[in-house]
UniProtKB/TrEMBL annotation:
Biased composition (Basic and acidic residues): 1-10
Protein name: Carbohydrate ABC transporter permease
Keyword Aminoacyl-tRNA synthetase listed: no
Source species: Kribbella pittospori
Entry's Gene Ontology BP terms: transmembrane transport
Compartments where found: Cell membrane
Amino acid sequence: MTVEDTRAPERIAPPRPPLPVDDTGGERRRRAGRIIGPTATYVVCVIAALVAIGPFLWMLSSSFKEPGDVISLTPHLLPNPFTLDNYAYLINNGVLPFIRFLGNSAYITVLVIIGRLMVCALGAYGFARLQFRGRDAAFGLLLASLMIPDMLMVLPLYSAYVKAGLIDTHFPLIIPPIVANTFGTFLLRQFFMTIPKEYDEAALVDGASHFRIFVSIILPLSKPALATLAVLTFVNVWNDFFGPLVYLSDVNKFTVPVGLAFFQTQDSTQYGPLMAGATLAIIPTVLVFVFAQKYFTRGISMTGIK
């Protein structure tokens, strides 16, 4: 046994407990960050909302003002005095009763929404649920049509409508938006692809046809996507100014956007009736979005590329 072996083993001192650290300042900063961050977000959102809604509040207020107060050098938000003369002039004494413009826009918009939902849903079902030769190539060709500018088709369509005797009718404003809507077909097709195909297989085993599957299974499960397409179609058709301006010449057939142009001429602008008409024109859009908001937001969030 050597000398090294007879030495007592060295004693290892136990580790000392860490000294307490005063982290009060760091905790306060973290708490302040958790409060300041969301508060700043809400403040920015409120400011952005006020900026966005400001023109609409000014339009609504101006519709109840006297004509001279609308363009006053000292503008004020609240009408003083408050008057309904602009709405009375708009409905009773305008270039044409504004109610007729609203009726024409509503008639065209409702027909386009119903027709577009039917045509796009059927097309989307075929591209999403049926298997046939050349399906993907046909869908790619359909998407390629989105690259064609709308303005490029105005002259050929106008010439065709002239030869068919359809100018100065509502036909060019109803049928083409129904049958030529690639985006609607694409939107519904992407949503249909998220529905499990096991539903189709189970229905086929039970003897259901594809039309029965489409009506009883696919459409009830696709309410968010259908509502999204309906809202987008409503906004697009209701606010369309170019189409009625090109294809219509009879004042009795004009829609709301073209009717509002009557109050703005080269020499002067009737700001009071114009603001009243714009207020009446925006009410249906607001109502549609309010009642369809739940389905609209779900449709946007659930529709994706599969």
